[in-house]
Amino acid sequence: MKRVQQIALLVFLVSFIVRVIIINFTPGSNSFADISCLVNGGQMISNGINPYDFEDNVELREKLRLDAIGDNFWLCSYQHIWNYHSANNLPFNLLFNGFLDFFFDGNVYYYRYAYAFLDSCIGYITTLFFFQLMSLPINLLSIVFVLLVSSLSPALLLNGTFIPEDKGFQVLLILLSLWFSIHRRFFWACLFLSFSIGFKAIGALVAPICLAYYVLGKDHFLQTGEWQTVVKELFTPADRLRKTILYTLATVGLFLVIYLPYASDFARIINERILYDIDNAPNHSSLWIVFYRTFPENWQTIRTTILCLITVILLAAFLKNLIPADIFLLSILLLFLCVALLTGSLDRNNMAMQPLIVYMAMRWRKEGMILGWYYGIAGILMLFPVAYKHFIDDTIEYAFFSSLFVLGYCIVFYYIVIRKAFQLWILKKGVVA
User: Fold this and answer.
1) E-strand stretches of 142-251
2) What is the DSSP string of 214-277?
């Protein structure tokens, strides 16, 4: 136990030092669009402005847009662009950046150090998952594996530190929610789960998994194959029903405390954002860039067909108890972030990709390790065109390569899930493969 904690601390320290070095060698990243949006959103909170009400304190909004803090040229060019994109996050996300601004007063370096600290914490908690909870043998290869799937993930270093992003915090919140739910630490489990819902919303898809781990216990939940049995045992006998109700009420209550003050204005902005993300030309790291460029006339038909096919297969396998409930929910999470949305940057895709490795390894260790090795090795290969662009030829576009990386991940993940479902179907039918 002590050795695992020492390794976890070492993983954290190495990851944080690497990030500090990257931050200090990339001052140009301080004016990237996303970090500017986050800083300006934090400024509004710390100055008492409702970010979602564009008519709230118009004069101060203009002053903040024109100051030297978060001064991305595109973001600050027009007030309506600044208003929309600086508020284009969920309430807890804005409140968190407002908390940072209270201490850092718009200093982008300190924002990046804070995100670097949180991203490095992913390495600490992931180490505990693999070496303590899953009892992965401790050796050099397994430590390298944990580093590649956690805080030294090429995807997280690229779109998290080199390109400053805050979405690593969402990954950390999802992992903390699972960790404390498994260990039945009621307060911390509900707190981090509510934060994971309030920060980027996707925590809602892992909430039922965390609830099942908390109420049923890790071993019993993993041994329960049928989703109907899981649902039944969450509500019977009376002590489990009480745990289910208290866990749900506490999590929802904490979320609503954050959400309700901004509910009406927030809903309008997020609805606009979702519509934009599902009805646009693919860009950033969307896996559909590959199809968009290869089949410009038919990519939409291909997309719709694949989306429907995956959805039908997953739903049928779930209803027939061919895949566990947690794997089904994780499949939907990946389907939403990496397949359905068209404008996903790598950091957004990573909010699903990184936690899924840990969650899958909890259920199927071998398959989780396969997925993790793909994620780490393919991530390293993805960095070569990025380095070429940064050091040799800045005209090269690396979006296509990150798109291939995401596409490959989805193929590996859904192949594993569908293959597992097919094997169980064969077993149930009594057919010898």
Assistant:
1) none
2) HHH-HHHHHH---HHHHHHHHH-SHHHHHHHHHHHHHHHHHHHHHHGGGHHHHHHHHHHHHHHH
Give the number of C-alpha atoms closer than 13 A to the C-alpha of residue 410, restricted to the C-beta side. Answer: 25
String of DSSP letters for 375-405: HHHHHHHHHHHHHHHHHT-TT---HHHHHHH
CA distances, 154 to each of 196, 344, 356 (Å): 23, 17, 16
Please state, in angstroms and as integers, the Cα–Cα distance from residue 358 to each residue in 22, 212, 306, following that order: 26, 16, 26
Compute the distance between CA of residue 322 and CA of residue 421 in angstroms, rounded to an integer: 5
Give the count of beta carbons closer than 10 Å to the beta carbon of residue 308: 10
Distance CA(368)–CA(362), nearest Å, equals 8
Q: What confidence tier does 433 reach under pLDDT thresholds 50, 70, 90?
A: very low
Q: Across the chain, what does the average pLDDT equal?
A: 90
Q: Which residue has the tokens 């898809």?
A: 205
Pick from 25, 29, 18, 27: nearest CA to 165: 29
Rg (alpha carbons) of the chain, rounded to whole number: 22
The mean pLDDT value for 268-297 works out to 76
Does residue 119 have a pLDDT over 60?
yes
This prediction's pTM = 0.93
Tokens 């260790």, residue located? 365
CA pair distance 266, 3, nearest whole angstrom: 46
- Give every CB contact of residue 24 below 8 A, 6+ residues apart in sequence: none
CA atoms of 117 and 191, how far apart (whole Å): 20
Side-chain-side CA neighbours of residue 47 (13 Å):
19
Cα torsion 174, 353, 19, 96: sign: negative
